[in-house]
Amino acid sequence: MSKSASTAAPVSGTNNLEAFWMPFTANRQFKKNPRMFVGAKDMHYTTGDGRQVLDGTAGLWCCNAGHGRPKIVEAVQNQVAELDYAPAFQMGHPKAFELAARLAALMPAPLDHVFFTNSGSESVDTALKIALAYQRAIGQGTRTRLIGRERGYHGVGFGGIAVGGIVANRRTFGTMLTGVDHLPHTHDISRNAFTRGEPENGAEYAEELIRIIQLHDPSTIAAVIVEPVAGSTGVLIPPKGYLKRLRDICDRHGILLIFDEVITGFGRLGTPFATDFFGVTPDLVTTAKGITSGVIPMGAVFCTSDIYQAFMTGPEHMIELFHGYTYSAHPIACAAALATLDTYEEEGLLTRAAELSQYWEDALHSLKDCPHVIDIRNLGLIGAVELEPIAGEPTKRAFSAFLKAYEDGLMIRTTGDIIALSPPLIISKEQIDELFTILRSVLHAID
After folding, report:
1. Per-residue pLDDT tens for 313-332?
2. pLDDT, tens only, 394-418
């Protein structure tokens, strides 16, 4: 449509809201009544009209160290002046190697190599490509099939959408990658409603992987990718033993296991990564978000020594993996990430959620008696409140809660009719009380 044919009311200068096509947003609703943040510090956002809004979601699951942290701010400022950009193709800069070494030290062996990306979506596509290329490198080139899971979210690249299992992310974009199959999700309210922590029921859902392997033959399957805790579809906690069972099945059939830890990584569960929390070590791990506490876009894929070494063959002057990004290991992102790791270490943030988890759990489950609540679930410093949908109007009840919470000074996240919570790891017990006091009032106020 030409500009002259547009029905949007003309707005001039910097106040023109129409030019920005907002992501994952009801654009028309927003632009009629915008919700603008103009500042952020520690646990709070500042709105355009000067109100303080408690951050109950760490931005978009990413600001694990909170907002405006001095060490990170200073590191970014200094890096811009020192080295603003350096190419990662056939060149390097010291902070990239320092960061990779420090990240690898956080992971259990043998996850000791790091490939840098710029987002969770890029990390997922990178991990999938490495998995496919690895199988070819070891003489298993028939292994081209990828297995995801229903209600999984793996970003918005074609690879991530293909292995993901959110219908709204898939229906618009055609066939995407072919040769993809999906495990069933593990969410089972009928048996696990209002579970505290890991559900007792549902480990048997992992057995569906055996059926999929038998259907396609293991010689065709390269990798299985799952979120240890499915975040963006409403905090779906894995049943006890489920992830270990997936690991065993993959090992038996020569299939790589990929954990998408874009959300669970960097302290969200009270351990550095979910692989530590669950005691299950995958072959590849995707990360982003908390790697820089959301300050600068960055992601990283961890892989085992065996995977890395499989590519380190042939003439030394030849590129081993034809993959990468212009901004891989960007100097400013590396500086932000190093300062973020310093902040995590100095303040004990990678394990702080373990100290708060019981208090968080009790406060969250105190909402059980609120109107429309049909399930509550939690792990570490993550929580979800599932609401009964309004008949014929799915998502509306939770969206109403989102709008009301914003008005009342609380930032929450909704997916479908589920309220998701994941505050910065610096949250205090007093702020946990404040968060759930506001949310209780919101749940009693909405229809």
Report:
1. 999 999 999 999 999 999 99
2. 999 999 999 999 999 999 999 999 9
In terms of Cβ atoms closer than 10 Å to its own Cβ (0-12, 13-18, 19+), residue 209 is buried
Question: Using CA atoms, how far apart are residues 58 and 47, in angstroms rounded to an integer?
Answer: 16
Residues for the chain: how many in total?
447
Q: How far is CA 65 from CA 61, 268, 370, in A?
A: 11, 11, 31
Encode 1-36: b = buried (16+ Cβ within 10 Å), e = exposed: eeeeeeeeeeeeeeeebeeeeeeeeeeeeebeeeee
Residues contacting residue 101 through CB under 8 Å, at least 6 positions apart: none
**Residues 6 or more apart in contact with residue 250 via CB below 8 angstroms:** 209, 224, 256, 257
The pair of structure tokens assigned to 246 is 């997936």
